[in-house]
């Protein structure tokens, strides 16, 4: 299993279960569930705050995805684990360095802000860059519905 910090997982208790979210990708959640006698579940954050509900409408398990945001037809949220994220991140770094008028060395070697930002999400509006946000912050933007894969386990004392 990929090394990841389990301390970064967020824990919720509902329906007599402990549910953990915040996995970096679907495969890590799947492996964690298998190793910890848990089951994969889907959570939805649909009320603009941090009160999740069990909800399968995003089809995360069947699509083998770990995160999805729906905020209307004009918005698209691209998570750092999405294959196209790197392409957008590279374009944003080039644009930012051009605006700052950096040397080629600074432009291509020293500027790694998007890569090191914690769990970044690129927000597009009408296929144009709008902002970079975090997974947690996306719950409060654009009246978005945020869906995450989780691992449910019985509550143990």
What does this structure look like?
It is a single chain. The chain has helices spanning 26-35, 60-63, 85-100, 104-110, 113-116, and strands at residues 10-14, 17-21, 39-45, 53-54, 67-70, 75-79, 120-125, 128-134, 145-154. The protein is an alpha+beta fold and 157 residues long. Strands 1, 2, 3, 4, 5 and 9 form a 6-stranded antiparallel sheet that branches. It has a 3-stranded antiparallel sheet with strand order 6-7-8, covered by helices on one side. A hairpin with a 2-residue loop joins β7 and β8. Mean pLDDT is 80; it is low at 105-116.
Multimer state: single chain
Content-based structural category = alpha+beta
Order of SSEs, N→C? EEHEEHEEHHHEEE
Largest sheet: 6 strands, antiparallel
Q: What is the alpha-carbon Rg in Å?
A: 17 Å
First-residue to last-residue Cα separation:
26 Å
Shape, per Cα inertia axes: globular
List its traits.
single chain, 157 residues, alpha+beta, six-stranded antiparallel sheet, three-stranded antiparallel sheet, 9 strands
In short:
With 157 residues, the protein is of the alpha+beta class.
SSE inventory with pairings:
Elements: E1 10-14, E2 17-21, H1 26-35, E3 39-45, E4 53-54, H2 60-63, E5 67-70, E6 75-79, H3 85-100, H4 104-110, H5 113-116, E7 120-125, E8 128-134, E9 145-154
């Amino acid at each position: 299993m990929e090394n990841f910090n389990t301390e970064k997982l967020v824990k919720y208790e509902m329906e007599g279960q402990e549910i953990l979210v915040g996995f970096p990708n679907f495969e890590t959640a799947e492996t964690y569930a298998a190793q910890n006698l848990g089951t994969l579940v889907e959570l939805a954050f649909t009320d603009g705050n941090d009160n999740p509900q069990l909800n399968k409408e995003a089809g995360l398990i069947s699509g083998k995805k770990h995160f999805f945001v729906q905020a209307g037809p004009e918005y698209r949220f691209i998570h750092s684990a999405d294959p196209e994220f790197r392409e957008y991140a590279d374009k944003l770094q080039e644009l930012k360095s051009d605006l700052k008028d950096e040397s080629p060395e600074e432009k291509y070697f020293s500027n790694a802000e998007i890569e090191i930002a914690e769990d970044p999400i690129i927000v597009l509006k009408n296929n144009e860059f709008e902002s970079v946000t975090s997974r947690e912050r996306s719950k409060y933007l654009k009246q978005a519905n945020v869906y995450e894969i989780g691992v449910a386990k019985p509550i143990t004392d």
